[in-house]
Amino acid sequence: MPVPLLDLRAQHATIRDDVVKAMMEVVDAQAFILGEPVAALEREVAALSHTRHAIGCASGTDALLLALRAIDTGPGDEVITTPFTFFATAGTIHNAGARPVFVDIDPATFNIAPAAVEAAIGPKTKAVIPVDLFGQMAPIEELLRVSKGLPVIEDAAQSIGARRQIDGEWRMAGEAATIGTFSFFPSKNLGGYGDGGMIVTQDDRVATRLSRLRVHGGLKTYFHDEVGYNSRLDALQAAVLRAKLPHLAGWSEARRRNASFYDEAFADVAEIRTPYVDPANESIYNQYTIRTDRRDALQAHLKERGIGTSIYYPLPLHQQPCFAYLGYQAGACPEAERAASEVISLPIYPELTRDQLEEVASTVRAFYGR
Question: Which catalytic residues are annotated (predicted)?
Fold first, then answer.
């Protein structure tokens, strides 16, 4: 039985009428840029994230770039981040004119290691960008502590709706950081029908700056306080996302149930290390990522049998050719490099049937002779 890594058609079948109705309301209104659909989504995401502000933009990548611009990042600055993440995290640092500084990860969670961040802070450090990888939050309270007042931009592209217990209280992804950023790329837990992004913050001044930067640097039409970007969230995308948002908690809970099924199915397979979730975290499992020494052979075995997989990520960012100018050598971030050679992600989407879960699990187990 073939099982894809992700099946958006299965999701669409359950919400089609609501989504089409929401989209047609925008089409009938013939108002496609920003407007009330975007403003309403911003209010709803701010409420979900427990933040004062949410600002829609064109993509998760733009969310990071606008956040960096909002804190005046530029040439001569350094921004500390993880090498084990999607390219946009470091690419936006470069495109803001700053220098990415890569530090290693916690091998258990794959998230950035606070001690490594603390050791890397120097006189040129402008900000820190942790990533909430695969759906669980980085230890934001520790990162804020070691950053000693520096802005912390939480790249929460994979973790909208995730939460973490801090001092006995649940804190949402994006809530505690200086700025939090989300992606609505279609494969995300809350995905649009194209690109889209959102930025959240508690800071009124930062929110105003972000709102200005996304519309060419001016809040008043044809008057520009600075040079900004064309990075507006389309009303059509906002309509789709608003139709989907009421389902997000249920989808994330289904992902957690699927993860528990896999955890149990692989418990007796010593060659597999299943995902570790920090006890303080509630993960939304954007990915279910295992580690194994025979990763490539396992992936080939699964492909032959129609099981979708992906490798997030096969080459850490500090080893990417475009960042050779930074001078990192092999071994600079050993945990990230080791993870890149061992990780493989399995289907985890909410609509997986029991038969599909059993097919994935039994196919993986068979590879190890179980």
Answer: 188 (proton acceptor)
Cβ atoms of 248 and 161 closer than 8 Å: yes
Q: Percent of the chain, pLDDT > 70?
A: 100
Phi, psi dihedrals of residue 157, rounded to the nearest 5°? -55, -35
Tell me the DSSP string of 59-91. Answer: -HHHHHHHHHHHTT--TT-EEEE-SSS-THHHH
pTM: predicted TM-score of the whole model, two decimal places: 0.96
Residues with active-site annotation? 188
Helices (DSSP H) in 234-351: which residue ranges? 235-244, 248-265, 295-304, 334-342
Q: Give the torsion sign (CA, 354, 109, 174, 197).
A: negative
Q: Domains for the chain: give ranges and CATH numbers.
A: 8-246 (3.40.640.10), 247-367 (3.90.1150.10)
- pLDDT per position as a tens digit, 234-274: 999 999 999 999 999 999 999 999 999 999 999 999 999 99
Distance of CA 340 to the CA centre of its chain: 17
**Rounded to an integer, what distance in angstroms lies between the CA atom of residue 124 and that of residue 77?**
5
Q: What pLDDT score does 156 carry?
A: 98
CA 112 – CA 118 distance, rounded (Å): 11
Question: Residue holding tokens 């979900």?
Answer: 48
Contacts of 114 (CB under 8 A, 6+ apart): 139, 142, 143, 145, 146
